[in-house]
Amino acid sequence: MTDQPQGIAEAEAAFADLEVDSPTVGIIMGSKSDMEVMEQAGTVLAEAGVSFEIRVMSAHRDPETVSEYCANARTRGMKVIIAGAGLSAALPGVAAAHTDLPVIGVPLSSSLSAAGGLDALLSVVQMPPGVPVAAVGLDNAKNAGHLALRILRA
């Protein structure tokens, strides 16, 4: 019998104690114009000492980037994704389709919306079975940050 398994166990134990700089929460949005609202989630997380990153990626203009980001989120150490989008608000659902992590959708109002944000709200909450997305109120990224904290502490 070799001591390779013991050596592997020791290496795993040593790595388990290392601090990793990867974000715990990913905050994504469909457009740079959403940044001011979505940064509110980051403020809540920062105040609680939770690491996060903020990225702009469109479910319509660059679906491959969204797919890759969400599919690899868990291996990067993420535990929750917060996705903000307006108008058709496809981003939260597309994110949830590519990961098994909890996804919190933030419907965003837009001056381009004929429905004043109701379209985005309905898009976030009307997900098909098997593709769950939590939803917070219109433009309420702050509550998305608080919900992410509750998920992390559960």
Write up this protein.
This protein has six helices and five strands. The protein has 154 residues and is α/β, with parallel strands linked by helices. Strand 1, helix 2 and strand 2 (52-56) form a beta-alpha-beta unit. It is globular, with a radius of gyration of 18 Å. The mean pLDDT is 90.
Radius of gyration: 18 Å
What is the general shape? globular
Could you say which structural class the secondary elements and strand pairing correspond to? alpha/beta
CA distance, first residue to last residue: 42 Å
How many beta-strand elements?
5
Give a quick account of the main beta sheet: strands, pairing sense, barrel closure: 5 strands, parallel
The total of helices stands at 6
Poorly predicted residue ranges: none
SSE succession: HEHEHEHEHEH
Tell me the strand percentage band: 15-25%
